[in-house]
Amino acid sequence: MASAAPPASTRRFELTFPATRAGFARGFDELRRRLDGLSLEPRPRFAAELVFEEVVANVLRHGARPGVESQVTLNVELEGDELRLTFVDDGAPFDPRGRTDPAPPRDLEHAETGGRGLMLVRSVSSGIDYQRTEDGQNRLVVRVRGA
Q1: Inter-helix orientation angle 21-36/42-58, to 10°
Q2: What is the predicted pLDDT for the residue at 96?
Q3: Is 77 helix (H, G, I), strand (E, B) or coil?
Q4: CATH number for the domain including 51?
Q5: Distance, CA of 95 to CA of 130 (rounded, Å)
Q6: Residue 43: which domain range?
Q7: Dihedral, 25, 31, 32, 33 alpha carbons, nearest 10
Q8: How far is CA 106 from CA 44, 50, 103, 109, 110, in A?
Q9: Which residues contact 18 (CB under 8 A, 6 or more apart)?
């Protein structure tokens, strides 16, 4: 059965890069270059870049398996006013939907560094979906409205 062609208003691209620091840098540069072609408003553009930084940094920091060459694939799709970023990696399973945001610190002296990335992603997104695929990959979809 053939799948329906995407609407003419749909624009998409895919990036694949190694799950390394160098891959992160190359992927981020390419993302920014490709987002230029979508002519996004500043808010969804910022959101897309922030989501990329936080998600891929967490894949590198927490999901990568020592001694295993991994990669990250990002599909970006703009349809109407919704921008969808779909991240696929073969790292350790991680479903962010059940994670709660950290409690705010009592004061600046007790504030800890880090641990707020998922909270940032939630703050700029209109929805997050996660699936652990049958072939052992993480599939994270982050939706941003206002594009």
Answers
A1: 160
A2: 82
A3: strand
A4: 3.30.565.10
A5: 6
A6: 11-101+114-145
A7: 110
A8: 32, 26, 9, 8, 6
A9: 69, 70, 71, 72
122 φ/ψ angles, rounded to the nearest 5 degrees = -60, -35
* Contact present, 126 and 142 (Cβ < 8 Å): no
Assess if residue 30 is contained within a domain. Answer: yes
Amino acid of residue 10: T
In the chain, % of residues over pLDDT 90: 55
| pLDDT tens string 80-135 | 889 999 999 998 898 887 766 666 656 666 556 555 568 788 889 999 999 999 99
In a domain, 34, yes or no: yes
- Return the closest-CA partner of residue 43 out of 139, 125, 130: 125
Residue 141 inside a domain? The answer is yes
Per DSSP, 144 falls in state E
CA–CA dist 122, 143 (Å, integer): 10
The alpha carbons of the chain give a radius of gyration, in whole angstroms, of 16
In a domain, residue 68? The reply is yes
